[in-house]
Amino acid sequence: MILRADAITKRFGGICALDKVSFEIEEGSIVGLIGPNGAGKTTLFNCINGTLPIDDGRIYFCGEEITNKRSYELARLGMCRSYQIVKPFRSMTVLQNAMVGAFCRVKSRKSAQEIATEALETVGLYEKRDEKASNLNIGESKKLEIAKAFSTKPKLLLLDEVMAGILPSEVKVMSKIVRDINESGVTIILIEHIMEAIMSLSERIIVLNFGEKIAEGAASEVVRNSEVIKAYLGVEEE
Amino acid sequence: MEQVIQALISGILSGGIYALISVGLALIFGVVGLVNFAHGEFLMLSMYIAYWVYYFIKLEPYESLLINLVLMATVGYIVYKVIMTRVLEADHSMQMLLTLGLSMVLQNLALMLFKADYRNVRIDITTDVINIGFTNLSTARVLAFIVAIGASVALYLFLQKTYTGVAMKAVAQDGKAAKLMGINIKKIYGQAFIIGTMLVGLAGVLMSPMYSVFPTIGANFSTLAFIVVVLGGLSSIPGAIFGGILIGIVESMAGYLLGPAYQQAAYFLLFILVLIFKPSGIFGRE
Amino acid sequence: MTFLWTGLAASWNFYSGYCGRLSIGHAAFLGIGAYATALLYANYGISPWIGILVGGALSAIVALIIGGATLRLQGTFFVLSTIAFAKILETFAITAKGITGGSLGVLIPYTPGFLNMTWSGKLPYAIIAWAYMIIVIAACVKLEKSKLGYFLKAVGENKEAAENLGVNSSRTMLKAFLISAVFTSFGGSIMAMYVMYIEPSFVMSMGNSVQFILLAIAGGLGTAFGPLVGSFILVPVTNILRGSFPSISGLHGLLLGLILIVVLLYRTNGILPALREFVDNQRRRAKNDIKS
């Protein structure tokens, strides 16, 4: 068990963004996290990775309690995320962006450069390494997000909609990148709206709706779950 | 005890002027999102206008109010058109540096043209006092306080009641949404900037019978106004009014209790404490 | 003097330039360095060489306090709080007459000698200022290549994203702020020994910090050699101007202000990056010419 969440609750004012969400993630797996807009998926990421403090519940990472630890501490422990709305360091080059992540593990510039270069090769941005990050298009920026996070040599990677907004032809490439990273030994949790990609990638899927976990299981089971269908199609209860 | 009350009253009176200066700044900051470090230099400019008009055509500052305001509005318009429109999209630190540059230019221009001399407008009201029983108050200061608070309240009402005012508030809250609602933001920005400049111009007029004018007089008032605006919760007009009075009191009490040298340090300290413990300002909402 | 200004500009750049958080109150550190050195020497006869170090240590402590208190503040708030801190220190320098001599300042006794860091000629000062400048610029070069430099830039651009990558933003900012403060303090010490007389309105004033900030911006924010380029163009130009029209006071400041505005409006990155871009373009053009 690499990650265990135990009844995480997060409120914004009176609204309950996450309501006692519990789940476990097995080491080495790819888990999909789906749900309609506003279901609390990104909030869940924010809470797991220490961007937002949680109001109740506990989180364990590799057997250690990490509830409300700061995100830089978690990065050192081996958990890193990508952002749905990309956050590149615009004035720095692509390579330098990835190097910031690599410095999490090594001290010298040379070794950081090596790690960063490797990460850029994995996501296919090596050719663009000397471009300013602000010059990348959306697909490339999403790849850079992954490369930055991958450079921290994580055990667990939280990917937030890395396929949203990119060309359909790129979705396959991105899927392959995600798989490659997973095969190198990194556990991945994936938020995604593109069903095809998430179905083919993830072994298990967790479904959130209005801050509650409404289903969890193998991909093929989950799509047949009546709660899930209701959440997505918005069927009214009779 | 009497002296304490005297210090208190004196603080409140200066606070009115601080409020007026700050209200202009708060308006510009709130609506246009501009951090204007040259605000104090506008004050200096207005005081020089009052002085020279008095010097050459013997019109007292109060009588030349209209001329002054028109000139100040022109200055505001030019500065806005030539400089500010280019940096509306830029980030705050750049705007700050730019206005800092502008304040340097204005300050040194004044130094070149008018020399470093302290210049006074000496008119009857300068020495007039009103007796309120146990102490005498300078008529000019009381008048300044009343007009300053009046103008600040008028601005507040303007923002509440008129179309332009409401549009300004809308732009202050969400520029993009306001644009979509068909508000001409550029125009609103310009108007807010000019009104802010005129308000500080009015402050200059009110101050000129009491304070000497010299090229660097603005510098202190710029930082002071900023502190007031931050204390008051950034773009809030009532906040700026109360913040101004509060700073006036703090300044005057610190001067009385600790000595004049500590006046500035006292409100700077207050400012730092507020920033650390309640960054949304004393009167700001969480 | 140009060396000294370059060093000061580079010291400031070390933090604000790379991180994008503008500290307008850096004069506080200049003042601490200047006062520590001058007072220890004038009152207790302690060698300025030691005074420099004491000043540095004091600045480091003050930097930790200011830096720590202002960590959470962003943009405008940070800038204003640095001004406020500097003003408080300035008030202290003026009012604590028993320690600092109040607004009269401190006169440094003139007894030439290496230990006293006092010489009759200007050359030794120039050498010290030059060494100072080289050290600070070298530190900036090193910073650009180091972990701290990468972290600092990253934090400056996006704190949340940097933390996600394992950057302890508080520690990064504090470290850089501290180093920058200590360097500025060294510059203050050297300035005090060169001028031989210090007073609050000179070493503690905002105007002073604005000057070296300006040099750094004009040259190029967040570049190791930007302050060098900025100072070597601007300082001589303004000095010549001041020399040629001594009767017009204010001309110097007017010009600096105008330069600041022009640089910000037209070349937001400063002179050095602009030059680089120009050279790059020329090269590219040359390459294309060869190809065609």
Summarize the structure.
Chain B is an all-alpha fold. Helix content of chain B is 75%, strand content 2%.
Mean pLDDT metric of chain A: 86
Q: Under the CATH scheme, which class of one domain in chain A? A: Alpha Beta
Total of DSSP H or I helical runs spanning 4+ residues of chain A: 9
Q: How many strands of chain B? A: 2
The gyration radius over C-alpha positions of chain A equals 18 Å
Poorly predicted spans of chain A: none
Beta strand % of chain A = 25-35%
Strand order of the largest sheet of chain A: 6-7-8-3-9-10
Number of helices of chain B: 12
Q: What is the string of helix and strand elements of chain A?
A: EEEHEEHEHHHEHEHEEHH
Quaternary class: heterotrimer
For the termini of chain B, the CA-CA separation is 37 Å
The geometry of chain B reads as globular
Query: Which bin fits the share of residues in helices of chain A?
Result: 25-40%
Q: Mind summarizing the main beta sheet of chain A?
A: 6 strands, mixed
Would you tell me the structural class of the helices and strands of chain B?
A: mainly alpha
Structural class of chain A: alpha/beta
Characterize the largest beta sheet of chain B: strand count, sense, and whether it forms a barrel. 2 strands, antiparallel
Annotate the secondary structure layout.
The complex is a heterotrimer of chains A (238), B (286) and C (292).
Chain A: E1 3-12, E2 15-25, E3 30-34, H1 41-48, E4 56-61, E5 64-65, H2 71-77, E6 79-81, H3 94-102, H4 109-123, H5 138-150, E7 156-160, H6 168-183, E8 187-191, H7 195-201, E9 204-209, E10 212-218, H8 219-222, H9 226-233
Helix pairs in contact in A: 3-4, 3-5, 4-5
Chain B: H1 2-32, H2 39-57, H3 65-87, H4 92-114, H5 124-127, E1 129-131, E2 136-138, H6 139-161, H7 163-173, H8 175-180, H9 185-207, H10 217-231, H11 237-257, H12 262-277
Antiparallel strand pairs in B: 1-2
Helix pairs in contact in B: 1-6, 1-9, 1-10, 1-11, 2-3, 2-4, 2-9, 2-10, 3-9, 6-7, 6-9, 7-9, 10-11, 11-12
Chain C: H1 2-19, H2 27-44, H3 48-70, H4 75-95, H5 97-100, E1 106-107, H6 123-145, H7 147-157, H8 159-164, H9 169-195, E2 197-198, H10 200-203, H11 206-219, H12 226-244, H13 251-266, H14 271-291
Helix pairs in contact in C: 1-6, 1-9, 1-11, 1-12, 2-3, 2-4, 2-9, 3-9, 6-7, 6-9, 7-9, 11-12, 11-13, 12-13
